[in-house]
């Protein structure tokens, strides 16, 4: 019986694991210098955690959540995003008594979207969140962190930063009313999918990738005409500081982000190398979210990046580790071989044990694996308590004590 992976899921192995780990290590380094604390939360949560905060009419809640009843009829959802679980965890564990709180997390998310290149039903995300400040410095710090991380990870790739402001809660509700009116007037010219959103979530029509909607969207009311003076000042400040810090960006007035909880600064880092799934990192402010989740009334700002999309842009990684193959020429030297392997591994030297007990087969296998050295144990080596160290690239070999082999290989 052959069981295939579930549609939209994928396994990571070989190069993909090397790339995943490179991203993870880099993120851990950045979190350290930017002083963020890691948080690891469960993969599933109560469904109510997501329903209201993400918006009852958002695509994620309506179509994409993996929700099920467990045996005692509790409604459980596999987390579709990490911001709400991280805030839930901060509230549950009383982490919000010293503010601001800077948290980051790396882990799997689940969305039942239509699978395509760069879009999966289980994928991995990096999340950075700052809770407890209205200061635009937090928005800037997060944008700069993302910008520096992307430049370090993908130095040769062209990645563009787009920013916008969604104003305050008042801005968005007034903007939604104006948009509804405008789209209602132009309903016939919109795609079916967008027509369905006019009453429930008109702001999401601006995000449509359907070319039918492009013209209507271009002429739609602009959110900047609905800012309060405070929201406007905030947005201008963000732009000024980014310019002064030489961070390139463009303003995209139609950038609204997918989830309902955003306000003020929103941003996306995009690439033109991945086709339609082109957003690498997206984020913004969510000032009412912590209160909505039952916590204190504190603001927040953060971003999420997709690890699979980043991996797709990375060049292959060469492992720098020397590979060393242990060759035991006869099963009767097995125990001697295991002891030698143990000594080498205790000296932090990696050893591949192949259980073949046959010089010819083992050498062929060592070559197949691209090993640099072989340590060979035959009759003579066993009797004299030594080993042969063979450099497989240079095809030279020498008999040595295990202590000398450790010295040579540790260089
Ligand atoms: P979002 O929470 O939708 O803003 O997503 C944040 C980032 O996660 C996106 O910019 C993508 O890089 C990544 N992402 C979102 N959905 C998927 C998916 N279905 N498959 C792979 N990556 C995704």
What does this structure look like?
The longest helix is centred in the first third of the chain and has 19 residues, at 15-33. The chain is elongated and about 90 Å long. The mean pLDDT is 94. α1 crosses α11 (307-313). The protein contains 15 helices and 16 strands. It has helices at 15-33, 48-54, 59-64, 83-92, 136-153, 169-185, 192-195, 214-218, 229-244, 289-292, 307-313, 334-346, 359-369, 379-384, 402-410, and strands at 37-38, 44-46, 66-69, 75-78, 101-110, 122-131, 159-165, 250-251, 263-271, 279-285, 300-306, 324-328, 352-353, 373-377, 387-391, 396-400. A hairpin with a 7-residue loop joins β9 (263-271) and β10. It is of the alpha+beta class and 411 residues long. The strands form 3 sheets. Strands 1-5-6-11-10-9-7-8 form an 8-stranded mixed beta sheet, with helices on both faces. The chain binds adenosine monophosphate.
Rounded radius of gyration (Å): 28 Å
Strand order of the largest sheet: 1-5-6-11-10-9-7-8
Largest sheet: 8 strands, mixed
**Intertermini distance:** 49 Å
By DSSP, the count of extended strands is 16
- Helix and strand composition category: alpha+beta
What proportion strand? 15-25%
- Fraction of residues in H or I helices: 25-40%
Uncertain ranges: none
Q: Bound small molecules, which ones?
A: adenosine monophosphate
| Overall pLDDT level | 94
> Number of helix segments?
15
* Shape, principal axes of CA atoms: elongated
């Amino acid at each position: 019986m052959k069981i295939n992976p579930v549609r939209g899921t994928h396994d990571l192995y070989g190069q993909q694991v090397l790339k995943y780990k490179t991203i993870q290590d880099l993120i851990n380094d950045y979190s350290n210098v930017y002083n963020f604390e890691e948080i690891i939360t469960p993969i599933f949560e109560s469904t109510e955690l997501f329903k209201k905060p993400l918006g009852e009419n958002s695509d994620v809640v309506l179509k994409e959540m993996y929700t099920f009843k467990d045996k005692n009829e509790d409604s459980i959802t596999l987390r579709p995003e990490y911001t709400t679980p991280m805030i839930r965890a901060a509230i549950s564990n009383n982490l919000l008594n010293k503010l601001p709180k800077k948290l980051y997390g790396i882990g799997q998310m689940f969305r039942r979207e239509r699978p395509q290149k760069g879009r999966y039903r289980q994928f991995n995300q990096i999340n950075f969140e700052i809770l407890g400040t209205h200061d635009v410095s937090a928005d800037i710090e997060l944008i700069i962190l993302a910008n520096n991380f992307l430049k370090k990870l993908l130095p040769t790739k062209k990645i563009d930063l787009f920013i916008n402001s969604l104003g305050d809660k008042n801005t968005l509700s007034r903007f939604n009313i104006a948009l509804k009116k405008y789209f209602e007037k132009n309903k016939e010219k919109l795609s079916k999918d967008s027509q369905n959103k006019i009453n429930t979530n008109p702001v999401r029509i601006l995000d449509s990738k359907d070319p039918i909607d492009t013209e209507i969207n271009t002429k739609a009311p602009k959110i900047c005409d609905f800012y309060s003076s405070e929201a406007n000042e905030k947005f201008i400040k963000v732009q000024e500081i980014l310019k002064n810090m030489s961070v390139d960006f463009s303003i995209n007035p139609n950038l609204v982000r997918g989830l309902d909880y955003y306000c003020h600064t929103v941003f996306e880092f995009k690439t033109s190398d991945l086709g339609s799934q082109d957003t690498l990192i997206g984020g913004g402010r969510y000032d009412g979210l912590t209160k909505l989740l039952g916590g204190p009334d504190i603001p927040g700002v953060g971003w999420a990046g997709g690890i699979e999309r980043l991996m797709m842009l990375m060049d292959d990684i060469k492992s720098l580790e020397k590979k060393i193959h242990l060759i035991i020429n006869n099963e009767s030297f097995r125990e001697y071989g295991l002891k030698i392997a143990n000594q080498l591994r205790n000296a932090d030297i990696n050893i591949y044990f192949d259980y073949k007990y046959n010089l010819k087969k083992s050498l062929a296998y060592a070559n197949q694996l691209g090993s640099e050295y072989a340590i060979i144990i035959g009759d003579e080596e066993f009797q004299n308590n030594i080993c042969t160290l063979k450099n497989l690239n240079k095809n030279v070999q020498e008999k040595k004590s295990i202590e000398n082999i450790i010295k040579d290989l540790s260089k």
